[in-house]
Amino acid sequence: MQYNQIPITKKQILQILESANWAPTHKRTEPWRFKVLQGKSLERLGEFLAEKFKETTTNFSEFQYNKLKENTTKASCIIAICMQRDLKESLPEWEEIASTGMAVQNMWLLCTEMNIGAYWSSPGLIKFADEFFDLAEGERCLGFFYMGNYDDSPAEGFRKSPIEDKTVWL
């Protein structure tokens, strides 16, 4: 899906983020944290990712470099998906990662309802996110949630196999 250049408003973004805030969370740790990028910060992120790729790869590709640099500016908004680990470690880390994933699911569902295109991307370069974002102690970036308005109808969803293939009844 190609995004058009119609911006997503701050009001819409706040609505989407508020939906994330209602995700299930064990012990009410509410581990999800978000960093909203629009405008020039999208360009800065693209430049950072491209330069980090150039600096760290052993198999440099000019095509991949340019793609990393330009992809961020195709979105109207990117939300960095971060997870704040409970510093007391009062519950397993996977539960906080799962809660953050459920927060993103809420965002994705609301984007769909609002006719905003969205997808989650976790590039290998995400491990360098702490060099771009100011992350708190115990916070880490899990990926980027790209969002944008679009003109065409979204493609019909599909699954590789039916739910019956993934379910055991006891």
Report on the architecture of this protein:
The chain contains 4 helices and 4 strands; from the N terminus they run αβααβαββ. By secondary structure, the chain is an alpha+beta fold. The chain has a single domain, classed as NADH Oxidase, CATH 3.40.109.10. The model has no long low-confidence stretch (mean pLDDT 95).
Sum this structure up briefly.
The protein has helices at residues 10-20, 40-56, 62-74, 93-113, and strands at residues 32-37, 77-84, 116-121, 139-149.
CATH topology: NADH Oxidase
- Unreliable residue runs: none
What order do the helices and strands follow? HEHHEHEE
Strand order of the largest sheet: 1-2-4-3
Indicate the radius of gyration in whole angstroms.
17 Å
Protein topology:
Layout: H1 10-20, E1 32-37, H2 40-56, H3 62-74, E2 77-84, H4 93-113, E3 116-121, E4 139-149
Antiparallel strand pairs: 1-2, 2-4, 3-4
Helix pairs in contact: 1-4, 2-3
Task: List its traits.
alpha+beta, 4 strands, NADH Oxidase, 170 residues, 4-stranded antiparallel sheet, globular
